[in-house]
């Protein structure tokens, strides 16, 4: 019998949790067809026993699948905890890998927390790791980072949302300097329906909060049909007028561009950023850093809209 790979077992466990191939593929950074092929390979290696019943309407665990899940889940969790601790030891005493997409929000709190953490814990250090624009949670789920800075809302069952780093970040849209919206004092979500809009798909609830699927009057907002993998590429597409980009003021100000105008959006609520980490995995250094961030946050003045 062919050897079973750990990635196949991880996919099985995620699919057992999600019961949806699309969401499973998204969490693991795969295509849906690749996720299906991986499951089929696992089922073949287990003697052809079906682990899921699949119809056009639903995915459900079979009795064999449920039994495998119940025995396998604690084993893989234990293995992951062991690997996490081994990576932490290899990285050095108290080294935290912090995933950051950009330095636009929460920088003030983070800088204070990093300084305090490194000053008060001998051998402690925070290593910044850039996270991809199109796979913001991927490094966290692959355990390439211990924590990540994320914009809210975030509602993922495998991820814990921790202390807030920023609040009341106002919504804006980035458009080309000669775009019809560029000269407006502010705009409405209703205006989004008139133009191609960037709407990333890697975190659906965040994408929907940033750019709803429909306007208040029910008009569809259609995502721009372009691939964007880097912030520099995104800025160029905006400046060329090929799309508009709903975002928050700190991001827009941090990435100011001579060919881009920033226009406030009056009818979307402000946003926040927070620390987040993977649920169910022990990491004492991470927990110490989170406590340090909470200590710093408690000293900050209240933020108002």
From TrEMBL:
Transmembrane segments: none annotated. Keywords: DNA-binding, Transcription, Transcription regulation. Belongs to the LysR transcriptional regulatory family. Residues 4-62 form the HTH lysR-type domain. The keyword Ribonucleoprotein does not apply. One of its GO terms (molecular function) is DNA binding. The keyword Transcription regulation applies. It comes from the Bacteria. GO terms for cellular component: protein-DNA complex. This is DNA-binding transcriptional LysR family regulator. PROSITE patterns: HTH_LYSR.
């Amino acid at each position: 019998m062919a050897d079973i790979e750990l990635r196949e077992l991880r996919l099985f466990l995620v699919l057992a949790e999600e019961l949806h191939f699309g969401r499973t593929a998204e969490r693991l950074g795969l295509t849906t067809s690749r996720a299906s092929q991986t499951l089929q390979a696992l089922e073949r290696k287990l003697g052809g026993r079906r682990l899921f019943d699949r119809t056009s309407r639903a995915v459900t665990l079979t009795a064999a699948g449920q039994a495998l899940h119940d025995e396998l889940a604690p084993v893989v969790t234990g293995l992951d905890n062991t690997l996490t601790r081994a990576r932490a030891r290899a990285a050095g005493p108290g080294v935290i890998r912090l995933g950051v997409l950009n330095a636009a929000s929460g920088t003030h709190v983070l800088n204070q927390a990093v300084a305090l953490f490194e000053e008060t814990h001998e051998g402690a250090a925070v290593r910044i790791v850039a996270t991809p624009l199109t796979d913001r949670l991927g490094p966290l789920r692959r355990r390439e980072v211990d924590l990540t800075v994320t914009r809210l809302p975030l509602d993922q069952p495998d991820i814990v949302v921790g202390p807030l780093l920023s609040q009341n970040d106002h919504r804006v849209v980035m458009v080309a300097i000669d775009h019809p919206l560029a000269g407006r004092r502010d705009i409405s979500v209703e205006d989004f329906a008139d133009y191609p809009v960037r709407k990333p798909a890697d975190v659906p609830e965040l994408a929907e909060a940033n750019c709803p699927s429909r306007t208040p009057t029910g008009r569809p907002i259609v995502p721009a049909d372009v691939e964007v993998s880097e912030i520099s590429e995104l800025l160029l597409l905006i400046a060329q007028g090929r799309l508009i980009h709903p975002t928050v003021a700190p991001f827009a100000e941090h990435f100011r561009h001579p060919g881009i105008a920033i226009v406030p959006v009056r009818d979307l609520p402000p946003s926040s950023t927070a620390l987040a980490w993977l649920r169910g995995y022990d990491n004492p250094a991470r927990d110490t850093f989170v406590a340090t961030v909470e200590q710093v946050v408690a000293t900050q003045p209240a933020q108002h809209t």
